[in-house]
Amino acid sequence: MKYLITGGAGFIGSHLAEGILNQNDEVWIIDNLSTGSINNIEHLKSHTKFHYTIDTIFNEPLLAELIDTCDIIFHLAAAVGVRLIVESPVNTIETNIAGTEIVLKLAGKKKKTVLVASSSEVYGKGNKIPFSEDDDMVLGPTVKSRWSYACSKAIDEFLSLAYWREKKLPVVVARLFNTVGPRQSGRYGMVVPRFAQQALKNEPITVYGTGKQSRCFSDVSDVISGLLRLVNHPKAIGEVFNIGSADEITIENLAFKIKEKTRSSSKIDYIPYEQAYETGFEDMQRRVPDLTKIRQLINYQPTQNIDQILDKIIGYFRGLESPNSVMKSLRDKSQ
Ligand code: UDP
Question: Among the atoms of ligand 1, which is closest to the Cα of residue 195?
Fold first, then answer.
C-alpha cells in the first residue's frame, strides 16, 4: 500500500509516517514546514520506503502527481493551535478550507481514499458531555476569531461528506481530540509541551483561567494506530469518528502532575485568558469524546494513560536538554 500524508513533517504526520513504515508500507509526505519541522522526519529520511517533498499543497501539479502515485491520502496539512488561530486568522481560514478543497478535488479525479483530519473544536462550546459525532455544533460569534478554526474544520467536514455523497469519493473524517506525544512543539500554544518545558526549566507554569477547565489527552501512538485501521475499514467510508481518549484531567491538575513528575521548583502562575489570548476569549470548559462509534467499528481502545503519556514526553524533553545529545542544537530550533 502507498500512502500520502499532507502535513507529514508535523507532529502527528511524522508519527503516522513512522507507523506506516512500521507496517512495511511505503509513504510519501508533503509539508511546507509552516508549523512542521524537518527535524521531525530526520530519522526517517534514510528509509527506502520514505519519500518527502518540502512544498505547499497549493502546488497543484505536484500534489496531483503525488496523489496519482499513492492509494490512500491522509490530509493533515492545516493551521493548528489556538494561539496561531488567534494571531493569524486569515491564514487559518484560507489554509484549512482551500487546502482541503484542493486535496479532495485532486483525489476525486483519481478516486483515491482520503482521510480528512478534523478536530474536536467543531463541537465548540457544547456542554452535552461526552460529545458524540451527531451532536450539534455550538459555536461563538464571528467577531471572536478563535471560532474561525472550528468553522473552517466544519466546512472541511461538509465538503468531505459532500464529495462522498455526490461523487462517491471514499472519504473518512476523523475528529481528533487533544493528541500529545514526543515532538509536539509548545510554540503554537499546546499545553502539555509548554508545561513540560516550563517545569524542566523551573520557570513558572502558565495555567490559563482558573485551571478548572479539563481536557482528555491521548497518546499519539494510539491515535495513529486508530487512524490507520479506520482508513482501511470499508465501513468507515462516508463516516465521521471521534478519536482520542475519554480520560479527563483539569489543566490545574495537569500542571501539578507535571511539576511533581519533573521534581520542579516552578511556581504555578494563573493567567487571565484575555492576557493569554485576546479580549473576550472563550475557552471550552470540558471536551470529552464519546468513543462508542470508533470502538464498535475497529475496537479502538487507548492503551496509554496520562502518567505513561507524561513520562514519555518529559523523557523526550530531558533527552533534548542532555548536554550529550548530538541533536540538541538542531532540535532546539524546532521548539
Ligand atoms: N493552556 C494553559 N496554559 C498554557 C497553554 C494552554 O492553561 O500555557 C490551557 C488552554 O487555555 C486550554 C487547555 O490548556 O484550556 C488546552 O489547550 P491547548 O491549546 O493545548 O488545546 P485546546 O484544547 O485548547 O485545543
Answer: 8
Q: Are strands 248-250 and 214-216 parallel, antiparallel or unpaired?
A: antiparallel
Residue whose CB lies within 8 A of the most ligand 1 atoms, among 251, 266, 309, for a mutation test: 251
What tens digit of pLDDT does each residue of 129-187 get?
999 999 999 999 998 888 999 999 999 999 999 999 999 999 999 999 999 999 999 98
Residue nearest to atom 21 of ligand 1 (CA): 190
Report CA-CA distances (Å) from 182 to 63, 179, 243, 277.
Answer: 28, 11, 19, 25
Return the amino acid letter for 296: Q
What is the distance in A from the centroid of ligand 1 to the CA of 191?
Answer: 5
Distance, CA of 116 to CA of 6 (rounded, Å): 10
| Placement of cell 500512502 in the chain | 3
Q: Which domains does the chain have, with CATH numbers?
A: 2-180+218-245+289-303+322-334 (3.40.50.720)
- Give the integer Cα–Cα distance in Å for 178 and 204: 23
